[in-house]
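User: My instructor asked us to take a sequence, write out its structure as tokens, and then describe one feature of it. I'm not sure where to start. Here is the sequence I was given:
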Amino acid sequence: MSPDTDLLPAEELHTRLQSIGDQFYHHRHPFHLLMHEGKLTRGQLQAWALNRFYYQSRIPIKDSIILSRSCDPEFRRAWRKRLVDHDGNHPGDGGIERWLRLAEATGLSRYRVVHNREILPGVRYAVDAYLDLVSHGTLLEAVSSSLTELFSARLIALRMDRLRKHYPWLESGLAYFQARLTQAPEDVSFTLDWVTQHATTRAEQELVMDALRRKCDILWAQLDAIYYAYVEPGWPPPGAYLVEEAGAA
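Assistant: Let's start with the prediction itself. The structure tokens for your sequence are:
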């Protein structure tokens, strides 16, 4: 078989992946900019925490789907760490539990968050689209969609700094972000190496980049829905969380 002369060198592939993050990752979304400037109300932060929990709760499901699609025990041993990171090894442990504590720090009840009854339709559809991507794309695409972790550590560090500065009452709920500062770089190191090794044609490299772009779109779409419902124009749909009901306008 002749070599693929269009295959990007690893460094060029990594540069292009980074460029996708620079352009399309949700660090530039107006909702995050307002958060980092201290311009969100408690109620808007509650709406964000409640809706984002739906995404958090689906991450272990996403990773379980990816695990089920691989026949490589070495890959599965590495990837299953993600399940422990989010589900923990026992009740009261893991990233999902830590996100619930963040939601509680905003003033929401745990019951209200866990039951997902007030999730925005746009958030639900975006998150479900992520599960669809990892279920029906190739394994290479499914794994590549997690490469947003290339950019998350920088955003998380900024977010922690700004939340402490502008919303000190959230301090008790920041453990989720603290844990991700070490977990995300560990995860992405493995993922980037794996993707680089398994994208052996230019067409497969394009699949990798496209999957990362699609994941960025999914993250952006979630914040679009939250911004539209709770910032401008401020039109939450029927059945969605209402700031007024929480007494946190």
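For the description part of your assignment, you could build on this observation: DSSP finds 13 helices and no strands in the chain. Try explaining in your own words what that tells you about the chain.
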